[in-house]
# Entry
Amino acid sequence: MAFEIKDRDLLGRIGKINTKSGNFETPTFMPVINPFKQIIPARKIFKEFGCHVIMTNSYILWKNLDPTQEIDIHHFLDYPGVVTTDSGAYQILVYGSIEINQNDIIEFQKKIDSDIATILDIPTGWDLPRELVEYSVEETIRRAEIALPQLYNSDALWMGPIQGGRHLDLIVKSAKKIGEMPYHIHALGSPTEVMERYLYTVLVDMIMAAKKNIPPDRPLHLFGAGHPMMLSMAVALGCDLFDSASYALYAKKDRYITTRGTKKILDLKYLPCNCSICRNLSASELKAQIKSERTRLLAEHNLNVLTGEIKTIKQAIAEGTLWKLLEARTKGHPSLISALKRISKYSNDIEKNKPGFKGHGISYYDYHSLSRPELTRYQRLLKENYAKPEDVETLLLLKAPPTTPYRRNEVYVQFELKLLKNSENLHICFYSVPYGCVPADLSETFPLSQYEIAEPLDYETIKYAAKNLSEYLTINLHKRIILLIGKEDLDYEIKKVVLKIAEEKEVKLQIIEDSRPWSNKVLEKIIQLLRSENR
Amino acid sequence: MAFEIKDRDLLGRIGKINTKSGNFETPTFMPVINPFKQIIPARKIFKEFGCHVIMTNSYILWKNLDPTQEIDIHHFLDYPGVVTTDSGAYQILVYGSIEINQNDIIEFQKKIDSDIATILDIPTGWDLPRELVEYSVEETIRRAEIALPQLYNSDALWMGPIQGGRHLDLIVKSAKKIGEMPYHIHALGSPTEVMERYLYTVLVDMIMAAKKNIPPDRPLHLFGAGHPMMLSMAVALGCDLFDSASYALYAKKDRYITTRGTKKILDLKYLPCNCSICRNLSASELKAQIKSERTRLLAEHNLNVLTGEIKTIKQAIAEGTLWKLLEARTKGHPSLISALKRISKYSNDIEKNKPGFKGHGISYYDYHSLSRPELTRYQRLLKENYAKPEDVETLLLLKAPPTTPYRRNEVYVQFELKLLKNSENLHICFYSVPYGCVPADLSETFPLSQYEIAEPLDYETIKYAAKNLSEYLTINLHKRIILLIGKEDLDYEIKKVVLKIAEEKEVKLQIIEDSRPWSNKVLEKIIQLLRSENR
# Structure
């Protein structure tokens, strides 16, 4: 297997890609190296930055080398790791055409012994008329097909690019067609303009259109993605590989990358970082360097940030806290928050792939956390797999106690003992944010038992809980509901939805309202209600 | 001057503290050094970590040294920077009492040549009966007073601690009394338990109670604060100095600090960092070290994160983006989100101190961004300093164009030309999120001209805009309003509040509703309305 999946979180995974020059772990960032001008030497990138795979451009190499010369790309670059080559497709995008055909650039990549190589796809440019986008998709599919015989006798891994730009239906078509062919890795083309324009919601849709239509056991590469601000989001949506020359290009333009955006070094009075470069250098010292040295220092810092972010993402996958990381990173730019909201459209896809409990409780910060897959899963399982006990007529719906698991709450334990003594024909559920309805018998399971939520609650979170409670009550219809509520915003919203259901479904509803819902006085009231019915 | 303020953002500031052993910049983190066991040697902390001020405990030194011995603390620690000493008050907190009185520990600190020294205050423990808290406040005030004659002939700077625990009225009293005395630095005592219990909302209140009642030109130290997750918040509320042994204590317990929380190294499969320690070390290599070496490595990593965060905070102050940093850091723990919400209580205090425009537009992520001081300021200035033109009867209230500055929007420019041709007796305002009402003649000023906001909008943000528009319209009452709205959630909310005001105040209201509010068709409608009135 070229790709082994070792761990998962959301749609992200930690994997291993095996090539003829060794293996490397994903998700990974492949620094793009100019074969003729290495701002950071490739060997140093391997040894000191721990990048065990890099990317370079085979077309630039082909164009500038004597065609009779025998070269090995690893030797040429002085790089001991895995070398991925692009085919010149990017140059088609920039210059309109290139001086080599697919057949020859494929043979050239084989000749230089590239480990991961690319067919000559036609990139989808930005804002093209649909006909031209269709052409790029169709022609890339055609080329992917005719290339196959050439690839069978190669020991490299081959990338099958997916085109379509912003046209999601074309991405779907492209992904399906290329996905049917035996490519080792798929690469989503041309997102660079989308990223430069901060159209991260569009990027979310593009990635998902590709991801859902390629074989799930193949790695997905996102061409040209090189900002740490968005890597965790792309990984969460299932991207495994990234390549960019951003670390060097930004450096040349005196740009300093951080996980919360990019800064001009002229604006820097302090270096907001403690990487190997920034720890012993002040902002004014950096600014005072001659251009070439400044570029090198900036490139090294930028690459440190990128490789550090990849490690951060991998650790988050291992822990099962990728969503938390994602939420933090969206504070880099408002467009990332918009993208986070867009991700909620794909909650079901993400939930399906999210592995189970990894030992970490859940942090609910605000309504953004409502798209968490654990919540989506809980609501789904509650609908699909849970039903109230059949012969029980009365639902006792209680405000959840302030500690988890609710059922282990000291006061509640006493409550329950006395209640069940007074009535056996009783089903007990809690209402709580963000879950909505939590049957007492489920309350000791994950994620109901282990979570923290920020207070005061926001409106969206309260609404979410009320809506989900309402759905539960509609599916699990009781003849009688005793509702114990407090006097806060949440309680009023809950009261509203329960009243509505009681009216519509003709349920007998008795409400006890108390600002201290967990007092003995309240318990007595409930017992009275239960007894009065039993008599 | 012992303290010079060089830059500001929110209540945070970049300052310089001048001592007899040199100066250092604030905000700063002072690593706490055990004088007899330095996990990282003090000299290395100065040279390699760039910490130009450290803190150590004079009581431990006094207790373990021969009293006749002459020592200089800088020489003893082998530290070339500024040394701050605590007095043993922390030991009172932990052990109940100590073996030295205030007079002697003050003289001892003078003798060892401490640069910043501390009187022997009585720390407020956690959850004490109010009488005991009152005692700690009263006794600390008394000691601060009687210490004064001893301090006049000292060339050290002296810290005057503020006590009171969670009792805000006692903090206020303490801060006022100690603030009247000529101490160089004030220190808010005993927040450690509050932080350990993640009671960050309580911490916000405690800091603000102190901050608002000490002289604003004195530095405020927060005792025992040592987690990068909360430093930006404390700085934003006006804290200048922090000290903690956290970097070493966490290391001893195999804890790995990040800006998004603390991790057990057993849970680490990857080191989510690229500091000088983590760049060339894998998680398994770290775990395989012998205990003492592992502790040193972890302590160095932890200190790297802390000093890196201080630089990040300083850069944010310099740029005027401290609020943005604060928002990002609150994703470290739900209790920090709760604290962020609590900060909105102090919007006016923060707004008053926030300097003007520093060249950066504003990012509105979600409703948390509504507490930004720029917004508070805009609403205040709109109320205090702006009034509609006196003799104008008609308000044309338009949905804001999609680009900023609104008034420079190409379509709007044409709109305005034609409108003003048709009616001179017209005042034009825009409605927009999050601002509410933006008079056209203000729309080219900061922050109205430079901001980005995440879409779709959340309910709280829409409500905020509607409320502020409503307030503007109530203060600036027109006889007639022509309202041009679209058909989105925001538009319906705006329509609701304008209808309400029109009804209550008997304003003639004409509404044009169009899903494309910026078309020529709509412009014609408005002109017709204007003409019909003029005739």
In short: Chain A has 21 helices and 20 strands. The first strand of chain A starts at residue 3 and ends at 9. Chain A touches chain B through 59 residues (CB under 8 Å). The mean pLDDT of chain A is 93.
